[in-house]
Amino acid sequence: MKDRAFAAKKLAVLAILTALGLIAFIIESLLPSMGIPGAKAGLANIFSFIALIMYSPWEAFAVVAARTFLGALFAGNAAALLYSFTGGMVSMGVSSLLIYAVHPRVSVMAVSVAAAVAHNITQNLVFILLTGSALMLGYMPYIALIGVVSGAVVGVAVELVFKKMPINVFEKVIREGKDYREKSG
């Protein structure tokens, strides 16, 4: 019975993180770009990064997948799904690898910056592959720079969430998650 309660609680938290990410995506889509057309701060990534820290890569990937699918659906832009999904998945892969392999030697901020740069480069490469236009390779340094800035913003936001939220909110969820993984693993 306790396992079912944890699973329901975890599903509810993941749904909330997905919804908050979707809200951030929609609000950000209404704001002007960061210098290059389509370049955004990626605030929706805050919530998938939180899922990664609280649970595991699988849950974080699920949040990214649900958010990008719903974001494309609400925005009415199927092409955005291709860019957002691939960028989000590569970004979460980089985040997962760094968080589980080298954190805490590497800070949450550094992980976020690396993930954002990977996200932007992946989206640009998808565009190049789809259009066959190698001209976009010239944008790579600018896209990487925007990734550094947006990754820093997301990293600061994630650090603030874990520093400013009451610790018992996260400790209980994380402790229950570890207990559940130990029993089922």
List the helices and strands and how they pair.
Layout: H1 2-29, H2 45-54, H3 57-75, H4 78-101, H5 108-131, H6 140-164, H7 167-184
Features:
single chain; 185 residues; mainly alpha; Arp2/3 complex 21 kDa subunit ARPC3; 7 helices; 80% helix; globular
| Shape field | globular
Indicate the proportion of strand residues.
under 5%
Mean pLDDT: 83
In the CATH hierarchy, what is the architecture at level 2?
Answer: Orthogonal Bundle
CATH first level:
Mainly Alpha
What is the ordering of alpha helices and beta strands?
HHHHHHH
Number of helices: 7
Q: Class by helix and strand content?
A: mainly alpha
How many runs of DSSP E, i.e. beta strands? Answer: 0
* Proportion of residues in helical segments: over 70%
Computed CA radius of gyration, to the nearest angstrom? 17 Å
CATH topology: Arp2/3 complex 21 kDa subunit ARPC3
* Termini separation: 18 Å
The gist of it:
With 185 residues, this protein is mainly α. It contains seven helices and no strands.
Textual characterization of the structure:
By secondary structure, the chain is mainly alpha-helical. It has one domain: Arp2/3 complex 21 kDa subunit ARPC3 (Orthogonal Bundle), CATH 1.10.1760.20. 80% of the residues lie in helices and 0% in strands. The protein starts with a helix and ends with a helix.
